Amino acid sequence: MGLQEMAEAPTERSTKESDDWDSTNYWRPDDDVKVPVQLGVMSRCPDALLCENVFNEVLRKVSNKIQLSLVYVAKPADIVRLDSSEPDFGVKCMHGPEECAGNVQQLCVAKHEPSSVWWEFVQCQNYEGRYKIGNPDLTLKCANAVGMDWENSKSGRCAGRDGSGKGSEGVALLKESVVLGKKLGIKYVVKLYDPHQWASDLHT
């Protein structure tokens, strides 16, 4: 086909591609496509708890449209790094080692349980107040509240069957999350990221 013929040839979209566009020629995402949303948080941070509470209401309306995940911020925020002086977690958390434990617990449940169970677990911890997050007793209580057999679950093995948040798999997840937060440029909570990596800093 010559250049003139190519220029005159009608442009065709596949049926699938055409279905993704509405009558106004705006892209309309497939109903099965979920938008990934990442929140930069600290499990004991009051701003983070407030943001998660707001998102709890959002999820009631759009839970089938988004894929929510939490990215945990560790101290020092401006030069996030792994810290060998913290033998239990390998990172310094802004609100102390109990926060590191809470981060680990939430990361493990996020990895090994359905998203609805994970989010209920996080909300259960938040409901009890930020100073209890990371506490082993609260971990076991919230696991029971969302129907998890903690001691025999993958989440329990990940975070520590005693609820301590010091399980080796969970600590590794925390380190990975902190490194991811560094790559995303998260210094404070709360930041909201879309798939194209733009960010709105919601911290006040």
TrEMBL record:
Keyword annotations: Glycoprotein, Secreted, Signal
This protein's GO CC annotations: extracellular region
Region (Disordered) residue spans: 1-27
Domain of life: Eukaryota
GO molecular function: oxidoreductase activity, acting on a sulfur group of donors, disulfide as acceptor
Family label: Belongs to the GILT family.
Cross-referenced Pfam families: GILT
Annotated signal sequence range: none
Protein's UniProt keywords contain Manganese: no
Localization per record: Secreted
Principal place of residence: secreted
Protein name as it appears in the record: Gamma-interferon-inducible lysosomal thiol reductase
